[in-house]
Structure formats: structure tokens, C-alpha cells
Design a protein that fits this description.
single chain
């Protein structure tokens, strides 16, 4: 495996990486690998959130279930817009 060397990193960045590493129980090398991987995923997808198909199916089912909530003068109107 290639060694990761981080040069000229400021103390704030190193502190952020260290906090993540400690919270997750990782050493700094493992933390850098995970952070690089996640950063690459975010950049490759232009920062868009993408769901796996099973997650998308569950989310779609939840939306469909919410659309079945009957109209009433109160709770069911929260977040809905008036129909034209």
C-alpha cells in the first residue's frame, strides 16, 4: 500500500482529522484513507447525494405513504401547498 504523507497542513486541519480519528477509534493513517475516499466520492458526484437502489425504493415508498395522508384542516396540511 502507498504511504500517505500530508505536508504543510495547518494545525486546524490536523486537529479536525485527529478529532475524527479519535471519535472513530482510527489511527491517523486510517482516518486519512477514509476521509480521502469520502471526499473523492463527494467530488466525483459533484456533491450530490446518491442512494443505493434499495434505499431509493424505501424512500419512494415512504413518500407514497405520506401522500395517502387524508386532507384535514390541520396536521395533514403541514408542508403542503395549496392546489391551483
Amino acid at each position: 500500500m502507498t504511504e500517505i504523507v500530508l505536508k504543510n497542513a495547518d494545525e486546524v486541519l490536523l486537529g479536525r482529522i485527529d478529532r475524527i480519528a479519535r471519535r472513530r477509534g482510527w489511527d491517523m493513517s486510517t482516518a486519512l484513507m477514509h476521509l480521502l475516499e469520502q471526499g473523492l466520492h463527494a467530488c466525483e458526484g459533484n456533491g450530490e447525494v446518491r442512494f443505493e437502489s434499495s434505499e431509493a425504493d424505501v424512500l419512494q415508498a415512504a413518500f407514497e405513504a405520506l401522500s395517502e395522508v387524508p386532507d384535514d384542516p390541520g396536521f395533514a396540511l403541514i408542508g403542503r401547498t395549496a392546489r391551483g
